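ARCHIVE CARD
SHELF: 3
SLOT: left
DATA:
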Amino acid sequence: MAGSLLLLYVHGLPKVFHFSEELTRIEDPFGMGPYFSLIPAIIAEVICPLFIILGFGTRIACLPIIGVLLVAMLFVHPGWSIAEGQFGWLLLIIFTTLAITGPGKWCIGAGKQREWRHGIDQ
């Protein structure tokens, strides 16, 4: 959850609150235009962290985040040293681990997930 809060606060909310300004400065590594580069970033940095914080669809919510982080680290900032890109690489490690392991039993949605799984098993 801490990784989601950091991603939301540091990257996601500024993109939403300063949308027009972000359109003028967002990198466009694949030539799709700023709008089609900014919207996936907002989904990955605002919507997905909220799902993870709430404990719903955690593994699936990690996938867009991982995708945006990989694009940022490999295509937008390929020349960054480990020191310059450490925040991005750490987030990539956190969300990849979360995608593999799942949210755990302490997440908010854990009770619903257990109920759903037990209903299937019966």
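SLOT: right
DATA:
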Amino acid sequence: MHPQIETIFDEAEHRYLKPEELGVINQYVNSLPERLDAYRTLRDRELEIMQQVADQLEATLPNEPVENLERSLKNALLLLRYSAMGMLLNDEAFVQSRLLSWLTTTISIHNTQAIDTSLFRLLNQRLTQALTAKQINLLGPYIAKVQTAILQSPTLAAAGN
């Protein structure tokens, strides 16, 4: 559940909700149909989206070992799924706690940052084609959070120097 809504419900245990609290709940409820639609689109088109990204990635980086490309693609698939769930829940902490805590370490260990940089660019391009502008606006912050964390991790900064 959306953490702010959960907090509102917890704090209002023995009272009626305040107008501003109802506003937060109303805003989330009103955005839910669009969030559900974006989630369904991602779920239903995931294979198509990721296959196109995989094909482009392989063409862009022909000298990279296949196992590295596959590892990065699997991570991107998880990034997409966790971002979609975070968007549906409207909860950035969900992505942080469930994905980022281990993904940045995995990427650093396997040294796939260069692949991931290209992959994120291709994924963003493909998502822009597959989703509506409104859906991109809902999903974008979650994907951006993951991409920023991965591309600005301390290991990457050290590698760039």
